[in-house]
Write a structure and sequence with these properties.
single chain; alpha/beta; 6-stranded mixed β-sheet; 17 helices; 23 strands; binds nicotinamide-adenine-dinucleotide
């Protein structure tokens, strides 16, 4: 497929981002790019230099109503469109995302602060989300249960109708598409809101959807902040399900708002993930992956292993080698290919992370590496923090218990298997865990006892889109991925026939 001349913003993105005057991001309602009804705008910053590059609408209840009206009109058509047609459109969106990988990656990096090479990988994964669920639209089927007393049950799974998808700023297009793609594949119309901190790739996706021929009103993308736009979405009576990824406190608020309306809810929330390293691990492989699982995307991935537990026997060896590797990580301009750690997403988050480091010291933590802001020549107003490793903290202190969501990890020795499990489980969160050992019996035994929705053994972030994704405890409710997402985005109806 050729790049298309109608994709105005995507084609011009480099020029727009380099311009001295911020451009306007628009909502995507009823198939068209439009301003919000109140014409109120929020500033969007480029974290690498601290400058405002665009303004996005702060959409209100009126805009949400317009989007719901558009979705209501579009529902019968989309619901009844043959699966193959849904496949063709969703697959076309995937193709266009792939074609515009460079442009989207530049946009994502400029909006979020991540290195461009990393953004390119994530944009590829956003395309994979659409491709994966395009095929799911073709494959999803009903179940049948034959009863002994000459009866048959079958279960119809119907689209819910209009659903809301709300996503965070850390993996913007990847997480946005992770929700939208299954919602559409299951036959729903969608009202979606990206984070107001990183709206750009969601805006560019609007153009891609128009280009791909998605019928108008099927997907509506609204920009704005949580308490205004997000709140109007979760409160709307006609939006029957909410798929949310973000912080645990926001998730709690959404649950409290949506529960009395009996909305279906999927909540993917915060984490404070343990990385358990046994002495009998493959040391080199573990070190390489642990550097990544600690600091990829500036540590702003809900799956990062921020609590590192190391068996006492190899603690000193680990510490020396790990610090050595961490000190070699280049913090710098996201546009440079050698940069491993880019900018922190916002000034507010940058200050939060620095406060967490100061608190760790106050709690008795010993900073082994990093711990300070990093000044980047030519980008002095950007928000950069050195990768930070802290030791010497009690397991129950705030630094070990609260999510920091930045380039900060703690390292703590453990005595034996039981001690490692106890320390790992001493958390209100239960999203992901990593276990390093060459003893597979032990690996399975420990995996069975860790209270997390996802466990990686001798690897990290190895994702198969068919697997259930989500957390236990305060890390969330429900699972996404594979058929789980298709089930979430459908209503079941059982039909029983006496033969
Ligand atoms: P956040 O909760 O502040 O915001 C997430 C989204 O919710 C944004 O779009 C925001 O505008 C919206 N929002 C805020 N208030 C709202 C309200 N009252 N009603 C409706 N929507 C509202 O989270 P964040 O700071 O953007 O993201 C970081 C958090 O996300 C971290 O806690 C991280 O662990 C979590 N996260 C979890 C996963 C996962 O899969 N479990 C993945 C990525 C990020």
């Amino acid at each position: 497929m050729q790049k298309n001349i109608h994709l105005n913003y995507i084609k011009k993105i480099q020029t727009l981002l380099q311009s001295n005057s911020p451009f306007l991001i628009q909502n995507y309602i009823n198939g068209e790019l439009t301003a919000s009804s109140n014409e109120e705008y929020l500033d969007n910053f480029n974290p690498s230099n601290g400058l405002i590059y665009s303004h996005c609408p702060n959409s209100n209840q009126t805009d949400v109503q317009l989007a719901v009206d558009a979705a209501t009109s579009a529902c019968p058509l989309w619901k009844n469109l043959p699966a193959e047609n849904k496949f063709i459109i969703l697959n076309r969106i995937a193709e266009l995302i792939d074609i515009y990988n460079d442009e989207l990656a530049l946009a994502e990096s400029s909006d979020q602060g991540k290195p461009i090479w990393l953004a390119k990988n994530e944009i590829k994964r956003a395309a994979q989300n659409f491709r994966f669920y395009a095929t799911a639209a073709m494959q999803f089927s009903s179940e049948a249960h034959i009863m002994e007393e000459s009866a048959i049950n079958y279960t119809i799974r119907q689209p819910i109708g209009i659903v809301g998808c709300i996503s965070p700023w850390n993996l913007p297009l990847y997480l946005f598409s992770w929700k939208i793609a299954p919602a559409l594949a299951a036959g729903n119309c969608v009202i979606a809101k990206p984070s107001e901190i990183t709206p750009l790739t969601a805006f560019l996706l609007s153009e891609i959807c128009i280009e791909a021929g998605l019928p108008k009103g099927v997907l509506n993308i609204l920009h704005g902040n949580g308490p205004v736009t997000g709140q109007a979405i979760i409160e709307h009576q006609q939006i029957k399900a909410i798929s949310f990824t973000g912080g645990t406190s926001t998730g709690k608020h959404i649950a409290a708002t949506a529960a009395p309306m009996f909305k279906k809810l999927s909540l993917e929330l915060g984490g404070k993930n343990p990385n358990i390293i046994f002495a009998d691990c493959d040391f080199e492989k573990m070190i390489k992956t642990t550097v990544n699982s600690s600091f990829l995307n500036q540590g702003e991935i809900c799956l990062c292993g921020s609590r590192i537990y190391v068996e006492k026997r190899i603690y000193d060896k680990f510490k020396t080698r790990f610090i050595d590797e961490v000190n070699q990580l280049k913090v710098g301009n996201p546009a440079e290919s050698e940069t491993k750690i880019g900018a922190i997403v916002s000034k507010q988050h940058y200050e939060k992370v620095l406060n967490c480091i100061a608190r760790a010291e106050a709690e008795g933590g010993n900073i082994l590496s990093g711990g300070k802001p990093k000044n980047i020549l030519g980008l002095e107003n950007g928000w950069y923090i050195e990768p930070t490793v802290i030791e010497g903290l009690q397991n129950n202190c705030l630094t070990q218990q609260e999510e920091i969501f930045g380039p900060v990890v703690t390292i703590t020795p453990f005595e034996n298997e039981a001690d490692a499990i106890e320390k790992a489980n001493e958390s209100i969160y239960g999203l992901a865990a990593t276990i390093w050992t060459e003893n597979l019996t032990k690996a399975h035994r420990v995996a069975g006892q860790i209270n997390s929705g996802i466990i990686w053994i001798n690897c990290w972030l190895l994702r198969d889109l068919r697997t259930p994704f989500g957390g236990m405890k305060n890390s969330g409710v429900g699972r996404e991925g594979g058929w789980e997402a298709m089930r979430f985005f459908t209503e079941q109806k059982n039909v029983c026939i006496k033969l």
